[in-house]
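Hi W., the magnesium ion complex you wanted:
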Amino acid sequence: MIVIGIDLGTTNSAVGYVDGDEARIIPNDRGARLTPSVVSITAAGEILVGDSAKNQAVVHADRTVSHVKRCMGEATHLHLGSRRLLPEEVSAEILRKLKKDAEIYLGNEVGKAVITVPANFGEAQRKATIEAGRLAGLEVLRILNEPTAAALSYAWRHPEAKRLTVYDLGGGTFDVTCLEKTDTEYLVRSSCGENKLGGLDFDSLLRDELLKHFEKEYGFVASTDSIVLQQLSEMVERAKIELSSRESAAIALPFMGTGGQPLHLSYEARRDIFDQLIAPMIERSLKLTVQAIKESGFSRVDALVLAGGSSRIPLVQRRLGELLGLKPSGGVNPDEVVALGAALYGNMLADEQRHSGNGRRGLRDVTSYTLGVEIDAGKVAHLVRRNTPLPVDARRIVTTVADMQESVEVHVLQGEGPDVTSNRSLGRFMLSGITPARRGAARIEVSFLIDEDGIVRVSAVDTKSGRREHVTVRPVKDEQQDDAHSISDRLESLSRRIRSEMKDLVVPQELLEDIQDLLLYSDKVRSSGEESALREAEIALESIIEELISIREDIEDSSREHA
Ligand SMILES: Nc1ncnc2c1ncn2[C@@H]1O[C@H](COP(=O)(O)OP(=O)(O)OP(=O)(O)O)[C@@H](O)[C@H]1O
Ligand SMILES: [Mg+2]
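Structure:
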């Protein structure tokens, strides 16, 4: 069975597969090698994805969703006509289209995929991406970091390059990764990035500049009309791309109606002005690049691989040269290199499943976050440092702060800062049933396990009583032991746990239905024994438990208020 590699981009997506020894791009049904990540719905309720959706975006902005990747993992609904969809549901539409086009091109069914995400995507965003794959009918073998995929693709064809730096500047995100190739595996040495830095931001800067000019020259104030704005955005993007190969580009908007007479607006975009506008952002990306190289410990860099459409901007290439003395390595198509790497990796995984099924993956990635828990007085204890190789198993003992304390709250945080306020809260859960003792006597072990998809599982156990009842997730003790059997066991206990949690709880009808479906699904998956389906079911069950716990906490809070 063929495994496809999918670069699910903010603006464009691409699909690759491995043919013999070569990774290739799969063109879509129009013959294009990139598919716009745009979804829309027609008046008749038909879902359009890609170029057709993008083409009607101007006239039907209200029925179109673009850049869904920027809100992956958020619990917001997006409006697609009269439908309200979660970001993962919108992404699933894109994936479904990519899968279908791949099947038509390959003349074969496609069931498995490796999907790439920005290196500094957080846990919720990764989970949402896996969920999108599942909804689209794909078994997601692995979530792979985009720059890692790009490095893999380059390294595959250039065995002599041992130390690679990937600079990936796309439509929505910036990532930089240093990867080292040894005789047996690829090791990611460091990785950093910014989630909201990319071509879209450059478009906005140029658009603002253009509107300023229009206002000064013609007294034209852009309406909030979505058609006008969409049209402007497209023209601005086209001009921006033009500026990568020319010093200036003309933007003309004839017949702009502003109530009275039609206006003919025109603007000459100039590269030097554009460079000034984007320079602060480019400098930010360069600073991160310097940091990544420093953290990698590389004494020199053998290859600089550029990925992402925005890496074509001449200022980017010039500044990389000036600052780092590095010239981009040739023979790389920045639009395609990520999907090709994902395909190569998918193929590696499939090979291993065929041959041995053991844990050797030939590729070791790193976490891109520092994670910790809140300890006494708003301070944070960091358990996992950035750039720790995956999978991670980090533990720490915490204790009680009051005499006879029977429960503790574990507050999971992300960030480098020393106190809670400078970190991001990722969630919290209660561990109760602790053996009562004097303050400071209890020993509660908090552990962080991060799997190779970058999914974080946090648990807490009271070492005295052995209680781990109220943990949100159950840890995977050891990679080797984490076979289908043990996941299946965990599913069973998670299901039991959910049933008992629900006993004395009033659960909203909608959630109740979801839970019942999920429990049925989980039983089905357990009898199938399919490992990745088991893992997905586990994640889903765990999040249900989280939800039930928060419902219980809300009830407890409000009854305390009423008391
Ligand atoms: N020649 C060019 N010069 C400048 N910008 C370009 C050029 N070609 C493409 N772009 C920009 O690159 C961006 C798209 O790049 P790409 O397809 O790599 O992003 P993506 O994969 O969708 O986004 P991300 O990786 O951030 O999720 C767009 O903003 C586009 O305007
Ligand atoms: Mg990309």
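Residues 7, 9, 146, 170, 308, 338 surround magnesium ion (ligand 2) (CB under 6 Å).

W.
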